[in-house]
Amino acid sequence: MEIKVLGPGCANCHKMEEMAKQAVKELGIEAKIEKITDIGQIAMHGILSTPGLIVNGKIRHSGKPLPSLDKMKELIKADV
Amino acid sequence: MLKAFASYMVYDLFGMARDTRLSGALEFFIYDTIKIFLLLTVIIFAVSVIRSYFPPERTKRILSHKREFIGNILAALLGIVTPFCSCSAVPLFIGFVEAGVPLGVTFSFLISSPMVNEVAVVLLWGLFGWKIALIYLGTGLLVAIVAGLIIGKLKLEKWVEEYVYKIKSLGAAADIAKQTFKDRIVYARENTTDILKKVWVYVVVAIGIGGFIHGYVPEDFLVRYAGPQNPLGVPIAVALGVPLYSNAAGVIPIVYALMEKGMSMGTVLAFMMAVTALSLPEMIILRKVLKVKLLAVFVGIMTATIIGVGYLFNAIL
Prior knowledge:
heterodimer; A: alpha+beta; 40% helix; B: 73% helix
């Protein structure tokens, strides 16, 4: 599984990265988590408001407020 | 019912004497605070539910390859309901341009979104009545449409940083996960709490100004300097407002104080628009995608349009 967290480095983006790691750990799945901070790259992925979460190529979340950890797990699980 | 509750609090619970300046002010303060927070909660919640149907990714698709004029009107309207934070202005701008949204239409959105939103409208409604709120809503949209149209007509694409046009999206990522209605309600609740946490201080300060400072500074203090008779009032207010940066809630206490002390309606509205629509931090962020010339044209057109609106309302109100 491939998870991408997209954000230029705002507080919420770091938080989302941490949450993604936590969610993967709690779900006990194998996943590669990648952080994308380049603005051009973010736009290229179709994310218009940050932070964004992409799981296996699908946009699962974008913008504020952040999803809860449980919601995050659901978003990631949806693609297992 | 709210009025009765406020007077119960002041006279029965606190046991204050009736008809003194202080107890009257406190009664007004309690009544207004409860009223405005009720309005804010209900309306932000409702708008948040609507918003969940218009994530920026969807707005982008709606506006893609739209003709000018229709596109500008749609963009200004979508600016009200699409969640947007100036920190995301760059990916949003690139995403819009890349999807084929015309430059002028993109600007209509970028102008309307921070300036015309539910928080601004509710606060104006609660403090000054629904007519003023509607006027702000209408003229805010007008400014966004007109300024976007002018920028579109000037064909300024050459003043957008070249790399913006080289970015091509990885199409596959474009589908957004479906939301259930429950997801939307959860989102709306979180969004409402988020916004209320951010704005409550400003709102209390604004109501406090109305309740307590009222009567301590002469009513017509500002009339001499910034009343309708002074033709320079509007440009001065706008010139002061452009470098100031705040969201709609933050500017409300100042707006309330200015209005209380006799600054005319058009001048106050122009000031509020200048503060919310144009800001130095946003310009610095937008500089990543726009050349300095285009930024200058943008600020110039906005300033002129807002000054125009100020004069218009000073003339007819």
